[in-house]
Amino acid sequence: MLEVRNGGFETTVQDYPGRIGMLSLGFAPAGPIDDYAFRFANVLVGNPPGAAGLEITAGGLVVAFHDERAFAVCGADMDARLNGQRIELWRSYRARPGDLLEFDYLQGSGFRTYLAVSGGIEVPPVLGSRATYLPGSVGGLEGRKLQAGDRLPLGEPSIDLGRVIDRRVQAHLVPGYPGYNEVWEVEATRGPQADPDYMTREDMDAFFSHHWKLDAASNRTGYRLDIYNWQWARTSGGAGGGHPSNIIDNGYPVGAVNVCGDQPIILCVDGPTLGGFICNAVVAKAAMWKLGQMVPGWSYIHFKEVSLEEAIDLLARQDATISEENLERS
Amino acid sequence: MAERTIRSPLPGIFYRRPSPDAEPFVKEGDVIQPGAVIGLVGVMKTFHEITADSGGRVVRFLVENEEPIRPGQEIVVLTDAGTE
Questions:
Q1: Which residues contact A17 (CB under 8 A, 6 or more apart)?
Q2: Across the interface, which of A10, A57, A59 has its CB nearest the CB of B9?
Q3: Chain B closest CA to A105's CA: distance in Å?
Q4: Which residues neighbour A316 within 8 Å (Cβ) at sequence distance 6 or greater?
Q5: Residues A223, A163: Cα–Cα separation, whole Å
Q6: Is the pLDDT of residue A113 over 60?
Q7: Which of A98, A321, B46, B67 is the most exposed, fewest CB within 10 Å of its CB?
């Protein structure tokens, strides 16, 4: 059992890949936004990469261990301390009963960090997943973010603790995060509703060259970018509506860049599953983790166009990277 | 005189008022109690209160209303109440 002493700003139970296969029923997958850090944290403690762990947004979480466990923290630096001693990120440690793990506020770039505990968090799965879907109050612990007094059940570790502590992710695989006011390069595919039918070639050239400012209101539902004065290839949305960004309602992919009027919004892991605005690009699945570490109100995005084949290849390489073979003894 | 600052634990947009038409939470010269709300940080479509961890007199704000702030940024300077 893991006891929550302070839930922090927004800490949720997540698993990977979340509640997939249910977009047609109106369920977003949820799950960690930065699934790269999340999965590596699990691998470090000997869990399956998708086992349920915690997504800690902007800091403030305090938890007490009641069992001897391996744990690892991967992602943004929140000055995590075990019994007051600073711990390293991207490394596994041993926790003993009574140990206190505390996260302060963000210390530099990045926005979320992930805590994996050996055995995983064993809240009851809902519709096949333990991921918390906040807008629908589904999954995780009672469908909500954590708060003081919560007690999180843990599963049985499958590997002996001594074999999984004091390991770290190889240094060249630990991502460096762009700082405040700096630009993230995010791989994205063109379409499904781009040029020449919906936007002009010039619109799409601008889309793939502009440095888009991330709005402070961005969250797990949507990442809002700056308003842009598009040319548009049409004068209206026809049967879909009066504005050229309107189309007849259709399904939205996770990671779609949804252009609502003149504002592009990246639909994130808790995003809407359908609607009547065009999507002029889709963030490559292997690049979605970057959204999790951008700082709302401060980060910029440069979309780098990739083909569907390149996006698939990026994902295959990412999946292969997140493996025991890329850990070393510390 | 013992000046100290209150920092924001969060990045986001800083607001000195609970709503656009309301009076500021606190003004320069006000004497505030520990726990008093001195402003809000808006991020991820939610608003988090910034509170004073100790009481005192508000000397000056270091951040404008609706200015973007970083985690750890100093927001307001306090001094012991009764001193000028």
A1: A29, A31, A35, A50
A2: A59
A3: 5
A4: none
A5: 40
A6: yes
A7: A98
pTM of the predicted structure, to 2 decimals = 0.96
Task: Say whether domain B4-79 belongs to CATH 2.40.160.40.
Answer: no
Of the candidates A10, A217, A298, which has its C-beta nearest B11's C-beta?
A298
List beta partners, residue A264: A259
Is the minimum CB–CB distance between B12 and chain A shorter than 8 Å?
yes
Residue A167 has phi, psi (to 5 degrees) of -115, 155
The whole-angstrom distance between A279's CA and the closest CA on chain B is 22
| pLDDT tens for each residue of A221-249 | 999 999 999 999 999 999 999 999 999 99
A158, A177, A196 - which closes a domain: A177
- Residue A19: predicted pLDDT: 97
Domain boundaries in chain B?
4-79
Tell me whether B17 touches chain A (CB under 8 Å): no
Same domain, A126 and A248: no
